[in-house]
Amino acid sequence: MSEKFDCRDAFGKALEELAASDERVVVVVNDSVGSSKLNAFKKAFPERVVNVGIAEQDLIGVSAGLANGGKRPFVSGASCFLTGRATEQIKVDLAYSHANVKVCGMSSGIAYGELGASHHSIEDIAWMRAIADMTIIVPADPVETYQAMHAIHKFDGPVFLRVSRYPVPVVHPEGYQFEIGKAVQLREGSDITIIANGTMVTVALQGAELLAQQGIQARVLNLATVRPIDQQAILKAASETKGIITIEEATTSGSMGGAVAEVVVQNQPVPMRLLGFPGVFMPTGSVSFLFDYFGLNPAGIEKAAFELLGR
Q1: Second-level CATH architecture of 184-309
Q2: For residue 282, what pLDDT is reported?
Q3: Among 17, 23, 47, 56, which one carries the catalytic annotation?
Q4: What is the largest CA-CA distance in the chain?
Q5: What's the pLDDT tens digit per position in 204-253?
Q6: Domain ranges across the chain
Q7: pTM of the model as a whole
Q8: Can 16 be counted among the known catalytic residues?
Q9: Could you tell me the CATH superfamily of domain 7-162?
């Protein structure tokens, strides 16, 4: 898993293919063509790029209008601003109205690193989870990002797709097929389960390798779809292993870890540890520094596993 890729490239490639096959596909951006890796799309389909400028609330309203007119809008912009500034419009214009709009949050999590808390997008999953009828997908690698784009194009209704700019390796085997609402098991294990998505799937696999050296067999689940959540896979893990660790590049308040905990506590209670950003504004630093500072690394997973297993 040495070579790493920017998932925005897979996003742009998929969008070009979708536009070539479906004349209804349009892109709505907030002065974010370059940061969304859409320069090639704009060159190929200049008449299908709507740039509203830095006006995220207008961005969502325009996309809803385009959807009502029969278009298939893909909204693209920095996730921190797209979800933070336009939550009301996403709630009312998209979710409540069941508008067929795909909201694609770019450079999510802490990808902006040193730009600090104003540019960190760690609350976006929690915000979107609080809105009824929003499907939420957090791909782990370029393979899953590309497939998720094609899947949401076929899906009827509003979707929040969270795309990272932080480079990641390919974690899915050849022949993998993404399916909305389905978790995928990437590693077997009977002692403990690690549930991750996005950039943290790679870390989860590395953590499982570290635990194996200690004689602990960790199951690894990629929970790319946060909503609708794969309850069956979660409860299977809860019943077959001694505890669950969730790890994500997001706040631990209401994001993927919280969603898993809701399923577990109401159906199959087991010990859990939620790894993420613990409800704080983070210090300024590089992405790698912040991951290590908050224990979003293999050593952090090892520590959490030892706590759960009483070692």
Answers
A1: 3-Layer(aba) Sandwich (3.40)
A2: 86
A3: 56
A4: 61
A5: 999 999 999 999 999 999 999 999 999 999 999 999 999 999 999 999 99
A6: 7-162, 184-309
A7: 0.96
A8: no
A9: Thiamin diphosphate (ThDP)-binding fold, Pyr/PP domains (3.40.50.970)
